[in-house]
Specification:
The protein is mainly α. The protein has helices spanning 2-10, 14-32, 36-45, 54-73, 75-99, 106-123, 125-136, 141-168, 174-193, 196-220, 229-256, 263-289.
Amino acid sequence: MLLGVVSYNFLEVEWFRLGLPIMLIIAFGIPHGATDHLANNFTKTGKFSTVVSRQFLIGYLSPIVLYTLVWLLAPQFSLVVFLAISAYHFGETQIMASLKSNSKFTCLHASWGGFLLSILFFLNPEETQLYLNEIIGFNKAQIIKRGAAMLCMIFSIGFILSSFLLYKNRKINTKQIIHLLLDTFLLCSLLWFTDLLFGFAIFFACWHSYDAILLQITGFKEVKPNFNFKQFYFYAAPFTIISLLALSIIFYLFINYEIPLNPVMLFFVFISVITLPHMLTIKQYYYRIQPSS
């Protein structure tokens, strides 16, 4: 977090402000989703396998195709769905990593993830408005700020009530709550001192993706005791390289050719349709490595 805050506020070199989050996303963000086939195999069989089965491909690609069609027919609805599944997915990984406990705390997942996105939009209404205008033509920053503030309060209440009920039912303890609150405070501090893209990129790489990698390593160690970061990156390399090549080709085409597509819209659609099957796959994996108590 300190690296992000210092580099954003004191280093005036724009390429570094942009380069740091890009490097972190390449290092953690892309690889954390490049092993979904491994997670799926472990969930289904309890074994470590690198096989990319036909069943997995159909189950993974079908939501991508369907969600893309929904984007074409109803972009506003699709954006809401994307924010909702992202909030839940971020919350689920954060709670699993911070509490090191039950993965089925649905209300806590949703409220924490919803709070994160709400505070991000509340602190950066103008930037949020710029991107929403590109995606769905919405350009009222004041409405965004008021709406985000209201959602912050709602999700905060949900977070407090969920934590209290879990504590009362002895699902989590005081130490776990303090750890989660401290982590949330540090993250909010990062978002306060940076802008929307920079702050989110640091969170996505250093909080979400890094924690997701640790959780995958923890699970795979059940059947491969010597599994570590080095092996994780080895197995993640093929799909990581494919992803980087695809992004490079898209970037090259937009720079060198007049493609009649909105690049911001295309980026959000691409990220959202990939997020859906990833979230569904990892959700089942979390259930496998951390069953209900």
